[in-house]
């Protein structure tokens, strides 16, 4: 059974490995990696989110309890790692927030979506998309607010929040999400031909993004210290999904067919946005890069075990 599940999720990681190997062999140059990564990050993924949220049946997709449980697990991961980094590893305040951000930002789009589709079917992905709606905005809101507010000496807390909201609203992922929700809420509809064309046109985005992710991971500068990455990885791959599962199974009667998609989303390795966030403030880039690279490889095994457990 475990072997069969591993075969199911393996194509996702094969694409990442192909991108990594292509960069290693210099078939996929740094210039091409950067250009394709920018295209996927700035247009491809935001457009994918826009289209799928635009056609999502919002009235039946939302499960408020499930969303609350998922976001609780995120915030808890942020608090755990930020506190461990600050009090145990003696990291500066900003570094601790960046590391906490890394722990809570699971790669729900590039890993969670394809793995959930392969394991549970395309019809289950409405759970993933409802989680994605608040995932990136909430992570950025928490991370940016904690850092920006700490910079304030004589000004008010509201200034830090204002800066955070500005950074979030200018993020392409947020723009894609908001446009998709707006399109949906205003009852706009694609024609049948246009919708089929867009489904076909967006089907390449995740495979290309996964291949590009492999190339990006090859060029990361990694850290020699694995203590902090190991702590973050343990929290991201084990504690965060465990919290979602325990809250959903013990404190609610959420259908396991819904709950398992949320658990898989929480069990994914930290995403590339964690590195972009670290790069934004110029701190912890090597530690975050090491965490992303190592945890992405380990997700091959951890996701297999989680799927086996949830079946």
Q: Topology, pairings included?
A:
Elements (H helix, E strand, L loop, with lengths): L1 H23 L5 H25 L3 H4 L2 H25 L4 H12 L3 H13 L4 H27 L5 H13 L2 H14 L6 H11 L2 H14 L8 H24 L5 H11 L5 H10 L3 H26 L1
Helix pairs in contact: 1-6, 1-11, 1-15, 2-9, 2-11, 4-5, 4-7, 4-12, 4-13, 5-7, 5-12, 5-14, 6-7, 6-11, 6-13, 7-8, 7-9, 7-13, 12-13, 12-15, 13-15, 14-15
> Which range best describes the helical content: under 10%, 10-25%, 25-40%, 40-55%, 55-70% or over 70%?
over 70%
Described by strand count, sense and barrel closure, the largest sheet is:
none
CATH hierarchy: architecture? Up-down Bundle
Residue runs with pLDDT of under 50 for 5 or more positions = none
Number of helices: 15
Q: State the end-to-end distance.
A: 10 Å
How many domains would you count in the coordinates? 1
Identify the quaternary structure here: single chain
Given helix and strand content, the structural type is mainly alpha
Work out the radius of gyration.
19 Å
Q: Quote the beta fraction.
A: under 5%
User: Residue-averaged pLDDT, rounded?
Assistant: 92
Helix-strand pattern: HHHHHHHHHHHHHHH
CATH class: Mainly Alpha
Shape: globular
According to DSSP, the number of beta strands is: 0
């Amino acid at each position: 059974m475990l072997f069969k599940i591993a075969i199911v999720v393996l194509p996702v990681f094969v694409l990442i490995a192909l991108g990594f190997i292509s960069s290693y062999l210099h078939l996929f140059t740094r210039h091409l990696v950067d250009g394709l990564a920018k295209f996927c990050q700035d247009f491809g993924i935001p457009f994918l989110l826009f289209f799928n949220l635009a056609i999502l049946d919002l009235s039946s997709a939302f499960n408020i309890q499930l969303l609350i449980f998922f976001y609780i697990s995120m915030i808890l991961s942020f608090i755990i790692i930020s506190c461990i980094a600050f009090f145990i590893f003696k990291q500066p305040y900003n570094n601790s927030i960046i590391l906490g951000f890394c722990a809570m930002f699971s790669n729900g789009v590039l890993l969670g979506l394809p793995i959930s589709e392969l394991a549970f079917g395309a019809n289950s992905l409405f759970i993933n998309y409802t989680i994605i709606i608040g995932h990136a905005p909430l992570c950025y809101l928490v991370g940016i607010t904690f850092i920006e507010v700490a910079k304030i000496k004589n000004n008010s807390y509201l200034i830090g929040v204002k800066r955070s909201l500005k950074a979030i609203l200018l993020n392409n992922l947020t723009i894609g999400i908001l446009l998709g929700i707006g399109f949906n809420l205003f009852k706009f509809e694609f024609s049948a031909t246009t919708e089929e064309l867009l489904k076909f046109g967006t089907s390449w985005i995740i495979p290309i993004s996964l291949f590009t992710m492999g190339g990006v991971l090859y060029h990361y500068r990694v850290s020699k210290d694995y203590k902090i990455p190991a702590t973050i990885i343990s929290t991201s791959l084990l504690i965060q999904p465990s919290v979602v599962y325990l809250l959903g199974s013990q404190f609610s009667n959420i259908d396991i067919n819904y709950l398992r998609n949320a658990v898989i989303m929480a069990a994914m390795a930290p995403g590339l946005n964690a590195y972009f966030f670290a790069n934004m403030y110029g701190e912890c880039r090597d530690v975050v890069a090491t965490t992303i690279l190592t945890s992405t490889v380990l997700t091959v095994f951890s996701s297999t075990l989680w799927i086996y457990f949830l079946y």
